[in-house]
Amino acid sequence: MPANTRQNVKGGKRQRWNKNKKKHWPKIDVTDVEKGLEDERLQLRTGGMVKDKKDSELFTIEKTPGKTTPESNLEKARSKVLRVDKVLGEPVIEKKTRVVKKPVKRLGKKKATAVITQTKAKEAAPMMDLWGVSAEQVADKLFKVNKFEKHTKKVIGQNKMTKFIPPQAVFTTAVEVAHAGSSYNPTVDDHQNLLAVEHEREVKRLAKEEKIQRAIHVDPKDYVTEEIRNQELTEGLFADESDEEEEEEAVDEIHSTVTVPKSRQKRRREQAAKDAIREKIEQKVKRVRENEVFRTKTFLTEIKKEKMVSKVRQEKKKEVAATKQPQLSYMRFEKPDQDLQLSDEIAGSLRKLKPEGNVMFDRYKSFQQRCVIEPRKRFKNTKRDTKVKYQEKRDYREITL
Question: Using CB atoms within 10 A of its CB, is residue 218 exposed (0-12), middle (13-18) or buried (19+)?
């Protein structure tokens, strides 16, 4: 059935509708008309209608000749000047056009101007001696670093040392000279000094261990036994009646006291006394604050003293930090014990000398002390709580006959 038929499908009668209603109006596509109107409005907003303008307003005529053929990539690469040649001051000639207007005489009285292009060679930069200047100057000139960029880098802190790099005071020699008392034939004083130093370190280590043991120690008297636990659990379950009567008799009688309300006059007097005390305190505080104006010199001297003390404290803190061993890992560096021999063990001769210490361990500790590597401890493998069970597979089970 066509779409434009206006008959009722059920009854076969013609449909009737009101022509004065908008939904029954014929539908017409007006998009082209709207586009045209929008284009005209745009032209009116941007300088007027195009159809009303002259050709001279719409088009321009080029009077100077342009390049007919574009320059190829090979020609561009050949004409390119390297940056190194520019920095080092090689004489490079670059063409620069300049427009000069000169009057040209003709037969008539009118004067015309001719455009003349002149080429001028660019003056070469002064030659720079690479061996006569520092590397920083060459880098600054090569990468065109000005004074503002240098100042910005200093302010930002890119030239500062990072925190994990130790100061110069921490660096020690790669191979330190051993103590004089550790010699194969030392003097009595040197040997006793070495023993005293190591003895003091051992005493400090033992005191530290004892302190830890005291902190974790538990007195055996404080242990909870089975008997004490049962007594606490059964407490109050098997109480006698006689005990309850004695407790009731021991309870004292509680007498209640009736408070008498205060009169208005008494409350008013108490409030007036509180206000007077508060006002007196406020006046005293105000008087002290006003008198502080005459103590400005004292305040200035106190501020100056505090600044001096703070400055001295900061300087001491910096000195300590400069000589302090930096911590590169989770643990601090501990100086190893020095190799020594007791008085009975000293041989006094190179033939009877016994080797002490380990070279690899000494170098390892030296790297840690000089902050080449971070100090660390060797982790021990934890023991397994359960035993490992081995089971023989069926494919590889040994066959016995």
Answer: exposed
